[in-house]
Amino acid sequence: MLRRRTRTAAVSVLVVAAVALAGCGSTPPVRALPEAQSSPVAGPSDPAAASAEASAVAASPSAAAPSPTKKPTTKPPALPPPPTGGKPGPGNTGVPAGTSLRVVNGDQVFSTAGQVISGLDIRGHVKITAANVTLKNSVVRGSATPCPGGPGALISISSSATGARVESTTVKPTTSNACLDGVSARNATLLRMDISGTVDGVKAFDNVTVQDSYIHDLSWFASSPSQGGKATHNDAVQSYEGNRNVWLRHNTMLVGSKGNAGYQVTQDLHKVSTNLHIEYNWIDGGGCMLNFSHNGGPTPMTGIYVVGNRFGRGSKYQCPILISTQTVLSQNSGNVWDDTGAPIPKPQQHD
């Protein structure tokens, strides 16, 4: 999606010109990856790879430049082409139709590195604590738990579970409460998920990819302990600890009229959120559908790429994107209203 351009002219001294960031035009309709492509195209969950990608700097030699003091700028990572297939929804996410499931009662802890778990109907919560664990083709229902005091998510992936994957899995609690989210993830990849009935769909901490997934029908509560007794803040995906290296790619994220945002980012006061990619999603509902807040941190929040998304008309303020006064979108291109294909307005900006 990015093109590099240089200019030359005959002068006696060779200088280095900065690489300009060229925006893209409208993006063709988004389509899902075929079933065979189960690995994410963008957004490696490996922290080292993600960090290297985020810090890539490019400059092109040129025989002349308008100003010898102009410095190179950071070049965003190259984007892959839009996925192929259909919009994520009930027919192509979650446990595949016809899958034979074995009922397992009680909470489950998967602590063996490299193990693959498939075909379970889990009547309890799941915790993944080992590296390279894969859970797929399953349903996770949870159980009745106190609020507060119970598990915070139906599936919790610990920071030690590097390379964890959850694929083609339905996450829907039998009993919802105001403290329960769908998936709490670090260093993980979530593919073709169907998540509903929780407060937030995904808590995405560092190095998380969510792709080809359907997050919808979240549970709203008029009072929540985590909100000081006020109503729940429902987000399809939320990052709030200065999280980095998050890819939301080709998902349907619907939060309804009472929701907060499709993706809410709140920067930590001591850690800068960066390398956030929101690409080729369908997003609707909430106050503003994408909400990026630097939260009064000492450093502006940047390294945010919003590309090729399609926005509905269901947000309370008809607001596709809200950025705070110290937030900079490194790329904002090809984002349109879903019903007309017309470009969305420029982001609202305030704290």
Largest sheet: 10 strands, parallel
Outline = globular
CATH topology: Pectate Lyase C-like
Mean pLDDT equals: 82
Q: Structural class, from secondary structure content?
A: mainly beta
The top level CATH class name: Mainly Beta
Topology:
Blueprint: E1 15-18, H1 47-54, E2 59-62, E3 102-105, E4 108-110, E5 116-118, E6 120-123, E7 126-128, E8 134-136, E9 139-140, E10 153-157, E11 164-167, E12 170-171, E13 181-185, E14 188-191, E15 194-195, E16 202-204, E17 208-211, E18 214-215, E19 235-239, E20 244-249, E21 252-254, E22 261-266, E23 274-279, E24 282-284, E25 288-293, E26 304-307, E27 310-311, E28 319-323, E29 331-333, E30 336-337, E31 348-349
Parallel strand pairs: 3-6, 4-7, 5-8, 6-9, 7-10, 8-11, 9-12, 10-13, 11-14, 12-15, 13-16, 14-17, 15-18, 16-19, 17-20, 18-21, 19-22, 20-23, 21-24, 22-25, 23-26, 24-27, 25-28, 26-29, 27-30, 28-31
Antiparallel strand pairs: 1-2
Describe this protein's structure.
The chain has 351 residues and is an all-beta fold. The chain has one domain (102-349): Pectate Lyase C-like (3 Solenoid). It is 2% helix and 32% strand. The chain is built from 1 helix and 31 strands. The radius of gyration is 21 Å and the shape is globular. Residues 1-74 have low confidence and may be disordered.
Short summary of the structure?
Helix content is 2%, strand content 32%.
Keywords, please?
Pectate Lyase C-like; 351 residues; mainly beta; 2% helix
